[in-house]
Specification:
Distance between the termini: 92 Å
Order of helices and strands: HEEHHEEHHHH
Number of helices: 7
Shape: globular
Structural class: alpha+beta
Radius of gyration: 35 Å
Length: 213
């Protein structure tokens, strides 16, 4: 039941990212003119339409079909990994990642200039650094969540990695019988021996009594 809820969360987030990404791209295609920026926050953030044949930061611009295959592989891996889903954090991360990957993959498959060679619609300009879209934002946030989950040692199925000394940090208390029991028994027998020794040294034989007399 829990896994089903997590899968529904992943699917809902994937669809939400995909719908918002494609809707904003459709809006900028009819609103913006390619190459003409519209300032939003001065020079820091603006809307500028461009068609990206490569990856982020215009990397591998001449290898669009390779990027299409890579994106397809990422989608397949996410879908397969979702069958082991047992963590809310991973459901959020994979939902964002899958939605972002499908958003840009759809551009590469269906947009001009052709199948598997389509250019991705980018329109959010971060100063002079790079131009991206909603799918890119989802992918970056997903990457951040995955890093946090990895640092915390949380696996996709919800289990945690056991680091050095993890056995001593558990909630299970071994109790006095496992830890202090033998030690207390030794102390008790030692005390008994000391008591017996004291009694033996304090006892006086009849001969010692006659000698004192």
């Amino acid at each position: 039941m829990r896994r089903r809820r997590l899968l529904l969360l992943l699917i809902a987030l994937t669809l939400a990212v995909l719908v918002v990404d494609q809707a904003t791209k459709a809006w900028v295609l009819v609103t913006l003119v390619e190459g003409e920026p519209v300032p939003v926050l001065g020079d820091l953030l603006s809307l500028r339409l461009l068609f990206n044949p490569g990856a982020a930061l215009s990397i591998a611009t001449g290898m669009t079909w390779v990027l299409t295959l890579v994106a397809t592989g990422v989608v397949v891996v996410i879908v397969r990994a979702s069958r082991r889903l047992g963590s809310t954090g991973w459901a959020l991360a994979l939902g964002l990642l899958l939605g972002g990957a499908l958003g840009n993959l759809g551009d590469r498959v269906f947009r001009a200039p052709g199948f598997a060679r389509g250019h991705v619609v980018d329109f959010i300009a971060y100063g002079d650094l790079f131009v991206g879209n909603v799918a890119d934002i989802a992918i970056v946030v997903a990457a951040g969540l995955i890093m946090i989950l990895a640092i915390r040692g949380i696996q996709i199925d919800g289990t945690r990695d056991s680091g050095p000394g993890a056995e001593g940090d558990g909630d299970t208390d071994p109790g006095p019988a496992d830890g202090d029991g033998p030690r207390r028994a030794d102390l008790g027998s030692g005390a008994g021996s000391l008591g017996a020794g004291s009694g033996a040294s304090g006892a006086r034989t009849p001969q010692e009594g006659r000698d004192d007399g």
